[in-house]
Structure formats: structure tokens, C-alpha cells
């Protein structure tokens, strides 16, 4: 893998104009890279992700191995993901998605983004492609 540099918070903040990110995690059974395109939200030096209440495979993979690679708007970063088990922190993360995405707001009455799996990707470093 190429050289890495800690992600500048200003650089991270500019990514908010993008709607999706590509997440690559390591398959918990195969050890192979697994990539999905998903929504994201930004925090102070972190990227938030959330999976459906059914716990998608990428969430299970990140729980087993927290190494994550994110690609947002041409910026490639790696970091350490952790599944959030604290209810208050999880609720705050889900709220970020409700505020950011119309579809998340519309799905709330049907249980969407009220029981989804919240994830924080921390210790972000840029990665040369």
C-alpha cells in the first residue's frame, strides 16, 4: 500500500458535498476484500456509517475486523471502524443520517434509521491509490 497521511479535518469537511462512499472491508470468513457503496455522515475527524437493522454483511465484517478503506469523492482513506454498542451514541449517529438524507427521514415512521447498526470509522489516514 502507498504512503499515508493523517486526514486534515478541513479536507474531510469538504467531502460533505458527496452522497455516497465506497467501503472496503475484509470478509470475516474468506479474508477477501468486500466493497459496498453506502451513505455516510461526517463528524469531527471521523466518518459515520450505518447499516440496516438486519445487520448487513459489511457490518458483520467490520465487527470481526475493523480495518476499513473508504473512498469519498476521489479521496481514499483507511481507518479503524468500530460498531457502536452504546445506545445514546448510536442514536446520535442515526440522527445525523436522518438530518442528511431525505430517504432516511421518510423511512423513520417505518422503523428505518431507528434500529440500524451505527459504525464510526476513526484514525483516518489518506492512502495513495
Characterise this structure.
With 129 residues, the chain is an alpha+beta fold. It has a single domain, classed as Pnp Oxidase, Chain A, CATH 2.30.110. The chain contains four helices and eight strands; from the N terminus they run βαββββαββααβ. The mean pLDDT is 89.
Strand content: 35-45%
Q: Write the CATH architecture name.
A: Roll
What count of helical segments does DSSP give? 4
Q: CATH topology, anyone?
A: Pnp Oxidase, Chain A
The total number of structural domains is 1
Q: How many strands, what sense, and barrel or not for the largest sheet? A: 8 strands, antiparallel
Classify the oligomer.
single chain
Fourth-level CATH superfamily: Electron Transport, Fmn-binding Protein, Chain A
- Give the N-to-C terminal Cα separation: 8 Å
* Rg, Cα atoms, Å: 14 Å
Structural class: alpha+beta
Quick one: overall form? Answer: globular
Structure summarized in a few sentences:
The chain is an alpha+beta fold and 129 residues long. It has four helices and eight strands, in the order E-H-E-E-E-E-H-E-E-H-H-E.
Can you lay out the helices and strands and say which pair or pack?
Elements: E1 4-6, H1 9-13, E2 20-26, E3 33-39, E4 41-43, E5 46-51, H2 57-64, E6 67-72, E7 75-83, H3 87-100, H4 102-107, E8 117-127
Amino acid at each position: 500500500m502507498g504512503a499515508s497521511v493523517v486526514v486534515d479535518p478541513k479536507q474531510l469537511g469538504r467531502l460533505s458535498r458527496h452522497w455516497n462512499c465506497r467501503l472496503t472491508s475484509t470478509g470475516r470468513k474468506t479474508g477477501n476484500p468486500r466493497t459496498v457503496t453506502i451513505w455516510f455522515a461526517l463528524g469531527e475527524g471521523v466518518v459515520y456509517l450505518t447499516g440496516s437493522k438486519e445487520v448487513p454483511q459489511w457490518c458483520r465484517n467490520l465487527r470481526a475486523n475493523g480495518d476499513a478503506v473508504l473512498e469519498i469523492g476521489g479521496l481514499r482513506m483507511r481507518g479503524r471502524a468500530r460498531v457502536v454498542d452504546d445506545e445514546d451514541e448510536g442514536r446520535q449517529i442515526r440522527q445525523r443520517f436522518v438530518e442528511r438524507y431525505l430517504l432516511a427521514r421518510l423511512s423513520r415512521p417505518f422503523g428505518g434509521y431507528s434500529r440500524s447498526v451505527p459504525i464510526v470509522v476513526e484514525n483516518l489516514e489518506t492512502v495513495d491509490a
